[in-house]
Amino acid sequence: RKKDAEELSCGFEEKKELELWQQGKRISLELLKDALATRENNSSFISFFKQEVSNSSLKDSTKRNHLSTLLLLQEFKRDIVFSDLTFEFVSSFEYFLQQKGYHTNTIAKHMKHLKRHINIAINKEYIEIQKYAFRKYKIKTVENKHTHLVPEELEQLERLSLTDKHMKLQKSLDAFLFCCYAGMRYSDFTNLSKKNIVDINQETWLIYKSVKTGTEVRLPLYLLFAGKGIVILNKYRNNLEDFFRLRDNSNINKDLIIIAKLAGLSKKISFHTARHTNATLLIYNGVNITTVQKLLGHKSVKTTQVYTNIMDMTIVHDLEKIKQAALGIKKKTDNSFNK
């Protein structure tokens, strides 16, 4: 890292020396420092950030995430030049996000976006590598505790009958339940169309490409959760495109908080709870983890393994199966012995 810093610094100095020589100016260390300081002070990091996102090959959804960080940066400090990007700036921005009530991992996401663009600025020689703001700053994360529904809680939502003023929540509820049965992310559900529903050997499958990973996911809906997902699709068969077009994720999550209360649930659920519920209940019911990996569209089974540790009921369920098997063997042995 030190070697890289020295090489980058030397490269910048050589470039500046050539520029000053071409301008007929006498080269000195002070002149080089002034040239760099002028560039840092006069260049807008906000414009640079926006341009880099626009020109990048990132997916549209990822670009939107980066631009959300940019909006927060502008809220924190309206005009940001490269010389502002110090350790103190980064630490103060973190505190600003904490005061806004953001979760530790959400703050980490925004910090990673900021770090990426500061790194690009260094590579493009807008900032000296010796002034790298993230040199001593450590991005903090905590292990997520995945919220999921147990079978009884899922049944409470399935039995919920919305009336009067709450009827407008029906589509949000049905979309959430469908994703409990299909294990889908919000981004994948809202990207669906009728063409993703396919008949194979006269059975209904859902085939789609994950927005997040680009992985193709193939779901035999008729085999998942007793085909309940197909029942919901049939309910909206005349207007499927509208069913798949939900409002933004934050508003749907607000709907789900109300729905959970109406169903008598004590948990605070979000749309992503559906995906966690799907994975947890499949593993609980004995589905092989590599099969769950394919159904969720995970590239690595390590990502799926987190679901094997989040449900005490799964442990009890597995041990009860072993206990029953052991009792069966014991009973068989006892009968043989009595004979």
From TrEMBL:
Residues 144-323 form the Tyr recombinase domain. One of its GO terms (biological process) is DNA integration. The keyword Transport does not apply. One of its GO terms (molecular function) is DNA binding. Belongs to the 'phage' integrase family. The lineage of its organism: Bacteria, Pseudomonadati, Bacteroidota, Bacteroidia, Bacteroidales. Keywords: DNA recombination, DNA-binding. It holds the Pfam family Phage_integrase. It comes from the Bacteria. It comes from Bacteroides stercoris. This is Site-specific integrase.
